[in-house]
Amino acid sequence: MDFFEFNSKFTHTRTELKTPLLLTEEERWDKKTRIFEFINQNKTSEIDAMIIKVMKNHKVLAHQQLAKCVIELSKTFQPDEETIKKRIESLIEHRYMRRDELNDRKYWYVP
Prior knowledge:
single chain, mainly alpha, three-stranded antiparallel β-sheet
């Protein structure tokens, strides 16, 4: 808990001073939630870009190889397998890549 005390001897050249507002617990939680959502949105975009970059270079890859390449490319954070899988599904839905007709665990880049 913060403790504040009034200093009557304090002087300043300006007649008005701006003090930061204290946030309630709910406001702090809301701010943290918005920051977390923003970070996650950036991570998904970064993962998408890495997947596309790898697929452009290789054209055809198995799921494990693709996931391994994406994890190796990531410099700022370590994406987990589940997130990579979700992003691959999203890219398939948006027609950036497709599944192999014979093997579900193999992906083709769609130029």
